[in-house]
Design goal:
Two copies of one chain form a homodimer.
Chain A lengths: L1 E8 L3 H19 L3 E5 L4 H7 L5 H8 L3 E6 L14 H12 L3 E7 L12 H4 L3 E7 L11 E2 L3 E9 H17 L5 E5 L5 H14 L7 E5 H10 L6 E4 L1 H14 L7 E5 L4 E5 L16 H13 L4 H16 L17 H10 L2
Parallel strand pairs in A: 1-2, 1-3, 3-12, 5-10, 8-9, 8-10
Antiparallel strand pairs in A: 4-5, 4-11, 6-7, 11-12
Helix pairs in contact in A: 1-10, 1-12, 6-7, 8-9, 10-11, 11-12
The complex binds 3-isopropylmalic acid (2 copies).
Chain lengths: 351, 351
C-alpha cells in the first residue's frame, strides 16, 4: 500500500495528473497493490483559495506520504505577484522543506520521435543519459543575497555534505547502470566554489573506483550536449548549472513534453513532468500526459524499488507511440492527433 | 596609421595570427593606410621565458595601442600550474586591467557550411545574431570568494554602472542593425542580482524606445538557442550566463573554427578567435585561420569605424569558401583539404 499525495496544480496540471492516476490505478490492479491518493492544492490553485501558493497543510501532507506527484504550477494570472508570493518561491520552499537535494532528469530520445529533434537524427538517436542536478543549495539558496538601488548580489556556496550526498547518489546510480561514466560539470577554472565541488566529487569517487569520472567545464559541457549528446551517461552538477544543462539536454531529445523528473531527498520524493503549466492549452484535452505518466514510472523505480512496475509503464508508453498515437506536441505534420484522454486510454490499455 | 599589438600566444596561435597579419597587410595596401605591428608574449609562451603568463611589459603594450590581436593561450604543458599562475588567471587579469567589459560574439551560420552543424539545416540556415557578454563583473570577479576544507563560495554581484554600460552598448549596436530586437537573459525569478540586472536594462531601454526588448530566463534561453536560433538578433547577458550561452550559440552554427570575437572597453579593445590553442595540431599548418582573420574584420568595424574594410575581409572569406577552400575542421568527408597558409593565400588573393 502506497500513500501518494497528488498535486494537480495549474494549467494543464489537472489533465496530465488525471492521466497519470489512471495509469497508476491500472498498474496497481495488475501488480496487486493498493494506492491511497490524497489530493492537495499548490501554486495558483492554492493562492486563489488561501492567498498562499503553499499552505502548511499541503506541506505537512507532502511530508507524510510515500511520494508526491505534481502536475505543473504557475500561469499568466499569477505572474505579477510580488517575488515572495510567486509560484517560483513556493516551489523553492517546497524543495527545501522536503530536503529534495537531488533532481534527476533523464534525457532520452524515443526512437519513434527522433525526427522531432532540431538536431540531426544521427546525432541524437540512441541518446540516453541522466542528469543529477543539486537542488537545495548553491546560488539558489546562498546568503547573503539582495538588491538595492546601487547593486544586486547573490552567493554561490556549497558545503561538503551537500556535494558528498549528490555525488554519492550519482555514483550509486551509475553503478546500477553497468558502471556508467559520470561527468561532473563545474567552472573550476574560474570559481573557487567549483574547485571545492570538484575536490569533493573526486573524494567520493574513491569509493567507486570501477566508475570512470570525467570533469568538464560548464561552457564546454553545454556545447558538447549539442555536439555529441551520446558521449554522456550520467551528469552530476550544481543547482544553476543543472538548471541550464538539464533544459538543453531535454530540448535536444525533441521530446520535452515526454520527459519526467524525480526530486529526491533522504526522506521525501516528488515526481513531476519537466514541462510547465501551458495555460494556453489548459482545459482543452490537448496536453501530452506521457511526461507525467513516466514520472509515475520513476516513482516506482526510485521510491518503491519496483523496477518491474516501471518497466510495464515504459513499455505501455512505447507501445502507444509505436501504434502511432500522438498528441499535438509530438505529431508530425499530417499525422492524426490524439487527445489527452485518448493517449491515456491507449497507455492504460497496454498495461 | 594603426598601432596593433599582436599576441600569437600558444599552440596554433602563431599560425592563425600569421594568417590574420597577412590579411591585415593586404587591406592596408588596398585601402592605403599604415599599420604598425608590435609583437608580445602572453600565456605559456610568456611563462616559459619570464615565469609569468602576463608580464607588466605586455600589459603596458596592450594599454598603449589601438587594438590587440590575440591568437590563443594555454595547453597541456601549463595545465598543472597553481591556480593563480594558469593561463585563465592571466586572461582574467588582462580583461580586468584593460577594462574590457563587453565581449561581442557573433553567431553566424555560413551558407557554405550549413551542413556542418549538428542541427538540421532548415533550423540554423540564416542564423545571424550577436551575443553581448558582460566580461569584467559578475561571479567571475565578485568578492568574497574562496574555499576551505568545509565549503566553497563565490559572489555574483553587479553594480549599476556595470549593467548600464553593457546594456547601452547592446542597444546602440541593435540600433545600427535596423533596430534589431534585444533579448536580455537572466534568472530574475530566482536571483536578486538578476532582478537588479533586469531593472537596469529596462531603465537603459527607455533611451531606445524604438527597440524591442525581451527578457528571457537563462534556462529557457539555452533551450531556445537550440530550438529556434533564428529568433535572436542581439543577446545581452552577464558574465557566466554569457560564457555558457555564447559557446552554445557558436556550436549550433557548426563553424566554431570560423567565429571571431571582440572584447571592448571604453579605452581598449582586444580581438581573438573563439577557438582555443588546439595543441594537438599546433605547428602542422592545419589550423583554420578564418576566425582570426574575421577578428581583424571586427577590429575595423569596432575600433577603427571602417566598415568598408571589414566588408572586404568578410567578402574575401566568403569568396574563398565559395571556391571550395576548406581546412580540415570544416571539410565535408571526401572534400580536398587546404593548409593554413593555402587558406590564407586564397583570402589574401580576394582582397
Ligand atoms: C521555475 C524555476 C524556479 C525552476 C528552477 O530554476 O529551478 C525551474 O526552472 C526548474 O528547473 O525547475
Ligand atoms: C578560459 C576561461 C577563463 C574563459 C572564460 O570563462 O571566460 C573562456 O571560457 C572564455 O569564454 O573566454
Amino acid at each position: 500500500m502506497y500513500k501518494i499525495v497528488s498535486i494537480p496544480g495549474d494549467g494543464i496540471g489537472p489533465e496530465v495528473v488525471a492521466g497519470a492516476l489512471a495509469v497508476l490505478d491500472a498498474v496497481a490492479k495488475k501488480h496487486g497493490f493498493e494506492v491511497e491518493i490524497e489530493e492537495h492544492l499548490f501554486g495558483g490553485a492554492s493562492y486563489d483559495v488561501h492567498g498562499s501558493m503553499l499552505t502548511d497543510e499541503t506541506l505537512e501532507a507532502c511530508k507524510n506520504c510515500d511520494a508526491v506527484l505534481l502536475g505543473a504550477v504557475g500561469g499568466y494570472k499569477w505572474e505579477n505577484l510580488p517575488h515572495d508570493k510567486k509560484p517560483e518561491a513556493a516551489l523553492l520552499k517546497l524543495r527545501k522543506e522536503l530536503g529534495l537535494f537531488a533532481n534527476l532528469r533523464p534525457a532520452k530520445v524515443y526512437d519513434a520521435l527522433v525526427s522531432s529533434s532540431t538536431l540531426k537524427s544521427e546525432v541524437v538517436q540512441g541518446t540516453d543519459f541522466m542528469v543529477f542536478r543539486e537542488l537545495t543549495g548553491g546560488i539558489y539558496f546562498g546568503q547573503p543575497r539582495g538588491y538595492d538601488e546601487a547593486r544586486g548580489w547573490n552567493t554561490m556556496v556549497y558545503e561538503r555534505h551537500e556535494v558528498e550526498r549528490i555525488a554519492r547518489l550519482a555514483f550509486e546510480y551509475a553503478q546500477k547502470r553497468d558502471n556508467a561514466k559520470v561527468t561532473s560539470i563545474d567552472k573550476a577554472n574560474v570559481l573557487e566554489v567549483s574547485q571545492f565541488w570538484r575536490n569533493i566529487v573526486h573524494e567520493v569517487h574513491q569509493d567507486f573506483p570501477e566508475i570512470e569520472l570525467v570533469d568538464m567545464y560548464v561552457d564546454n559541457a553545454a556545447m558538447q550536449v549539442v555536439r555529441n549528446p551520446k558521449q554522456f551517461e550520467v551528469i552530476v552538477t550544481g543547482n544553476i548549472f543543472g538548471d541550464i544543462l538539464s533544459d538543453i539536454s531535454g530540448m535536444i531529445t525533441g521530446s520535452l513534453g515526454m520527459l519526467p523528473s524525480a526530486s529526491v531527498g533522504s526522506e521525501h520524493a516528488l515526481y513531476e513532468p519537466i514541462h510547465g503549466s501551458a495555460p494556453d492549452i489548459a482545459g482543452q484535452n490537448k496536453a501530452n500526459p506521457i511526461a507525467t505518466i513516466a514520472s509515475v514510472a520513476m516513482m516506482f523505480e526510485n521510491s518503491f524499488n519496483r523496477p518491474e512496475v516501471a518497466a510495464d509503464i515504459y513499455a505501455a508508453i512505447e507501445g502507444a507511440l509505436a501504434a502511432g498515437m500522438r498528441t499535438g506536441d509530438i505529431a508530425a505534420p499530417g499525422q492524426a492527433i490524439s487527445s489527452t484522454t485518448e493517449m491515456t486510454e491507449a497507455i492504460v490499455a497496454r498495461i
